């Protein structure tokens, strides 16, 4: 240990360009180091101690990166919040994470204020990037605090929230071990080393740049971007993803690695040929994708266009996973890869017995040194476990040589455009409408997004189904659920299929939509 880690590299070379905001503003490693150090001093002055948490409702860019860097050297948990959420949804996460400070960007002021009020955040703990009513500007918080290296530094972590079958998000919380932040960061660089990605210019003399294409509140975005920074790469942020802008940025900053989802590939391939050939993307060496199955023809087209830089993996916020190099995938089209060197993957039947190769069952994973708990929910933590393995509820099979193929999803989770959406959370809101007697929400195929949200509703007695009711339901959902969780379409039925014990037979509703597909996800 001792050659990687942002703080170590920034001290050695403060002039390296560490980040580029969506507006093109460049920040040196020294500037980020100074800001994150000052933030640690300022929040410690408010009484924050090790194992405390902070939350950020901020768009992609340096503001959130500074929160991340401060937390990871002060022994705190940092929770980046999905900015599509409503005030009550934000408030729940802020309260549940027990955040001792809440940071809101002025772009998200309305929802941020409502979230802070919902969570009962004290006025002295509310901070703003820009102008947010009732929040102290971050510059005012930092005023008078030195940018010197804080004493008693120790590793912190991100605590992302992931939903479950009950619909309430849960924080994935890992124990902190009080070790040097740079040593902890260097350990985490195994993630990019799995793909063969080298450190940046500060270590090797060869510049590396990582393009951030998706919102920073996603676990993978934080992990891949954060790890790239800890290896001395330049982070290039996109505010809102656009296909042509992606090509422009790759060419401009000579981007060498990025993290994407299959929806991005679909849109890139939909660009006119003249646009696609206008930009030089030859600098790209590792275009890594995950979050949803990638259709085999789409993957072939990307390999034909970008060459053998398209890598795939299957993983979870909770830890563990598989990886497929371009060569592995071409030899096993459709695979999501084989287990990482520090991970293990098994496929089991309903009794927890391991199944032979080629037989589909529930996928379980584990990763060395990555034990976790769902914060405040021991039952959910235990429910996901089989010995020291855990599951996301996906169904698949392993080949004789250990390559994993996904075939179905045991849980009801919907993955749309790379975002995890949980039907129970949506159903729990729709059922509150007085004109709804019963509701089922599930995912159906969408060629661009992978899946889209479908709701089937049994209207209350005497209620007329139709467009007027649909509009009324959408109005009802506006203050309750982020728009990304709304059903794309609503169908109506006289009665939902339920067993005598009341269990909803959602498969009867869902399966016809997937009948002509090779997989059910």
UniProtKB/TrEMBL annotation:
Cross-referenced Pfam families:
AMP-binding, AMP-binding_C
Q: Which residues cross the membrane?
A: none
- Comp. bias (Polar residues): 155-166
Q: Where is the AMP-dependent synthetase/ligase domain?
A: 6-366
Keyword terms, alphabetized: Ligase
Q: Where is the AMP-binding enzyme C-terminal domain?
A: 425-503
Decide whether keyword Ligase is in the record.
Answer: yes
Give the start-end ranges of region Disordered. 144-167
InterPro entries annotated for this entry? AMP-bd_C, AMP-bd_C_sf, AMP-binding_CS, AMP-dep_synth/lig_dom, ANL_N_sf
Family under the similarity heading: Belongs to the ATP-dependent AMP-binding enzyme family.
Name used for this protein in its record: Acyl-CoA synthetase
